[in-house]
Amino acid sequence: PTLKTDTFLPFIILALWGATLANLTCLQQTDLKSLIAYSSISHMGLVIAAIMIQTQWSLSGTMALMIAHGFTSSALFCLANTSYERTKTRIMILTRGLHNILPMMTTWWLLMNLMNIATPPSINFTGELMIASSLFNWCPTTIIMFGLSMLITASYSLHMFLSTQMNPLLPNSPIQPTHSREHLLMLLHTAPLMLISMKPELVI
Question: How does this protein lie in the membrane (predicted)?
C-alpha cells in the first residue's frame, strides 16, 4: 500500500546507498582486512533493505545471505591471516605473487572471492537473487542501486584477488609453506556453504 511505500522507501534507499558507498570504500582500500570488513558492511546494507520489505521472499533471501556471508567473510579473514602470518603486512600490493609459492591457497582465495560476488550456484547467489527480485517487485527503481552495488562488488573482489595472488613475487621474501590445519580450516568453511548451496531448504 501507499502508506507502507511512503514510510519504508526512504530507509530502503538509504540502506542501498550505504551499501554502494561501502562498496566504493572497498575499492579505495589498500589494507586487506579493512577491505573485507567494509565488504561485510555493504552486504548488510542489502540485508537491511530486504528486511524493510517484509515479504516471504525478501526474508528468505535475507536469511540465506546472512548465513552465506557469515561463512564467506570468516573464510576471507582466515585467508587474510594466513597471508599476514607469512608477509607480516596487510597491504595488498606487498602480499602479491603468492600463487607462485602457495597455489592451493590461491585456489581457496579464488573460491571465496567467487562466493563473495555471489556466483551461481552458491547460496550467496540464491540469497541475492531473492533480495533483488523482492526489491524489483516492490519498487523497480531500486534495482539501479542494487545493480551498481553488485558491479562494484565484483570489481573490488577481482582487485583483491589480483593484488594478493597475481603479479611478480617481491624479491627476498621467504614464504613459509601452508599447514594442513589451514587447509582444514578452509574446508570447514567451504563444506557448509556447498551443502547449503545444494540444499537451500536447510536455511530458507
Answer: Multi-pass membrane protein
User: Pseudo-torsion of CA 26, 27, 28, 29, nearest 10°?
Assistant: 50
**For the purposes of burial, counting CB atoms within 10 Å of the CB of 70, is it exposed (0-12), middle (13-18) or buried (19 or more)?**
middle
Residue 2 in domain: no
Global pTM reads 0.90
Total structural domains in the chain? 1
Residue 140: burial class (beta carbons within 10 Å; 0-12, 13-18, 19+): exposed
- Cell numbers for 25: 570504500
For 35-74, what is each residue's pLDDT tens digit?
Answer: 999 999 999 999 999 998 888 999 999 999 999 999 999 9
- Asked if the structure places residue 81 within a domain, the reply is yes
- State the helix-helix crossing angle for 32-53 and 2-28, rounded to 10 degrees: 170
Q: How far is the first Cα of the chain from the last one, in angstroms, to the nearest whole number? A: 26
- List C-alpha distances in Å: 176 to 40, 82, 137, 179, 189: 29, 10, 51, 9, 23
Beta bridge partner(s), residue 31: 91
Close Cβ partners of 117 (under 8 Å, ≥ 6 residues apart): 124, 150, 153, 154, 157
**In this predicted model, what pLDDT tens digit does every residue of 83-109 receive, in sequence order?**
898 888 888 888 888 888 888 999 999
Which structural domain, as residue segments, surrounds residue 101? 8-169+176-202
